[in-house]
Amino acid sequence: MSHPSITDYIKERASLIERELAAYAPEEWHIPAVLKDAMTYSLMAGGKRLRPVMVLAAAEACGGSVEAALPVAAAVEMVHTYSLVHDDLPALDNDDYRRGRLTNHKMYGEAIAILAGDALLTHAFYSASRASRLYGVPAERVLDIIEELAVLAGPRGMVGGQVADMQGEQGLTQLAELEYIHLHKTSDLIVFSLKAGGRIGGATERQLSALETYGRNIGLAFQIQDDILDVVGDEQKLGKAVRSDEKMQKVTYPYFIGLEASRLKVTELTDLGKKAVRDAGFQAPERLLELADFLTERDH
Amino acid sequence: MSHPSITDYIKERASLIERELAAYAPEEWHIPAVLKDAMTYSLMAGGKRLRPVMVLAAAEACGGSVEAALPVAAAVEMVHTYSLVHDDLPALDNDDYRRGRLTNHKMYGEAIAILAGDALLTHAFYSASRASRLYGVPAERVLDIIEELAVLAGPRGMVGGQVADMQGEQGLTQLAELEYIHLHKTSDLIVFSLKAGGRIGGATERQLSALETYGRNIGLAFQIQDDILDVVGDEQKLGKAVRSDEKMQKVTYPYFIGLEASRLKVTELTDLGKKAVRDAGFQAPERLLELADFLTERDH
Description:
The structure is a homodimer. Chain A is built from 15 helices and 2 strands. Chain A is mostly helical. In chain A, α3 (50-61) packs across α9 and α6 runs antiparallel to α7. The relative contact order of chain A is 0.12. Chains A, B: This is Farnesyl diphosphate synthase.
């Protein structure tokens, strides 16, 4: 059997994740209809499902089971989705569209969007907690995963990055500030995804540390690539207005160090991430290595 | 040593909880200052800390350690606090004051209030997850606690109740609808508190089931008492405008069955709750029994 391309691998894993997400709330659960609709609207809005794919890829790199990693993969997508729903709110980014569809609050109103976000965040912890009961992942490991999710998605992690980003809109003066934002707003959840997958797959401490280095570097590279695409990208491919950051007077990586140096930085970070993975003795590191290139070579 | 009154018991346990809450974010953690301030502002705003006291009381009823129950007690107060911060937002209840102080969004703006609520909710799961690492509570038990927190605070629980409440403002026609709101908006977190404390204390299945019955009944009684106080209570004691529900044209228990029948219902539910606890063979059920009376005899 030939080795499927990384694009096919991502598609195939994403479809497993879609199936897992689609089953997040069984029929017999009593949830007010509008709440369930609003949660489902944003959860099933598509996207490449990159974070949950990373959970599965890290589990597989350790020789672990894809199935056992699905509840945590779904959890990370729920956290990512809630963060988008809340970020889009009028009090925050005030966006009317995301991925070419109306944002949650434009569909359901602000109150329901706030509560649907809250519900998705809470339900993420439910989903993650089930890995033990459903697939026999040792309770200690699942608890470590939950603790780390709370750290990396919480005030020291993603929410902290979001607050710094908001404040940065009033004027960033240093590259270090922008890097703080990128690391927490983007890398933290990627680092979580990789380490959680690793834990499920039985990663050694050395491998967990390599996954952290890999995640931090490719997360930052991914975000710098996003900044670059926002300057040079093609509007149609991206499905959103380009130069929106510039219009919002938002400071990006190219603003500080220029386009060419930003591109070099992406390559450098990607290489650092891949090296960490290569040196950590994974059973099957290929997909992680391919994913790093896929993420930073994308044009949308 | 004489048996301290239930009021003294609550005060003493609440002070342990205050200390635990005050330490929620060590100095060395890097959290944007405004985010930490906003989280602390609402978390340390006082209140009787009834839910976390219930965690401790249930653990003690089983002969368990108060100390080991503190991380989960703090967690439930964080969840309660986040729910108040989000409920107060302009898009929801649009309240300017709570407990005589400006609400979070009046102090810090809507964006920070939304994110501070998100951070408190996420951090609650961090706090709960630490019970194992810090106090040796078996990981399986902590995982059960986390799963139940996610259920009872999530779309099937508290958030579901909140959505039903919002929709109910457009006109409830049946008592069953109001009961659904009360049970989920209020009882669910109380049930969680009691069962989580029970699990930490090593409760049997029969005791967990008794704690659920007790929590469901006194939670509903507590909420009906709240409805009653809103009709007849004294403005100064309550520290908020009475008859606010009526002004908002909000439907309450007395609206459906009258004041006297509502009072009888409170007594009946309290008795049912106490009976469940009495019959379940707890090592030290006294505080739970006293708590039930304290909650429903309060005049503010």
